[in-house]
Write a structure and sequence with these properties.
This protein is mainly alpha-helical. The chain has 9 helices and no strands. Helix content is about 70%, strand content about 0%.
Length: about 190
């Protein structure tokens, strides 16, 4: 398993396809969801994700991860906010050609706002789903269903146990095993946050 720091080091090489594939799997859904939450249509949200990832690709070779300067997630958030502003400017038909009139018009474009808490919530949800997809294959379907239906779906333990042919204790054990693995997977990318 790669930690975030090692993944950030690996993406400095644009030819490291495995690192970039993992990076895109982890962050593209977050960026897409961020765009959708800010009113972009699906295609525009996909463009936002692609543009933000392109910015990371451009900056990656010189990127030096320094937790003292802030988190990578915070840097990515700043990129996403800037891309939202650019999308808003495009939507209202502004051409960025310079001059004070254009600057005033750009300043009038609504700022996505101080939504860092929303970004962090979305990040955690995205990270949970990413980790869940990765570990799902490690469990029998009955174990997975016991976890998913009770921990995520909120179904009653007794009902799920009966449906799956498990004891209530078996459902609790299944939940614990899957939860532990998901937490391990999340920690593997959050070591430096």
């Amino acid at each position: 398993m790669q930690t975030r720091a090692s993944l950030l080091l690996r993406i400095r090489d644009p030819k490291d396809v495995l690192a970039w594939t993992e990076f895109v799997r982890l962050y593209a859904p977050l960026l897409h969801a961020y765009g959708k939450k800010h009113g972009l249509q699906d295609a525009d949200a996909a463009d936002l994700a692609q543009d933000a990832l392109r910015n990371v690709l451009r900056a990656a070779p010189e990127f030096v991860y320094d937790p003292a300067r802030g988190s990578f997630r915070g840097w990515l958030y700043t990129i996403a906010r800037n891309e939202i502003r650019k999308a808003a400017a495009r939507t209202i038909g502004l051409a960025v050609t310079g001059g004070s009139d254009v600057r005033e018009m750009l300043d009038a474009v609504p700022d996505p706002g101080p939504d860092r808490d929303e970004w962090d919530r979305e990040y955690r949800l995205n990270l949970f789903h990413w980790a869940a997809r990765r570990v799902h294959v490690e469990f029998r379907e009955t174990t997975w269903q016991a976890f998913w239906r009770t921990a995520v779906g909120g179904e009653e333990i007794a009902s799920v146990a009966s449906d799956l042919g498990l004891s209530a204790g078996g459902v609790y054990i299944a939940r614990s095993r899957v939860t532990t693995r998901i937490r391990q997977e999340i920690r593997s990318v959050e070591d430096d946050e």
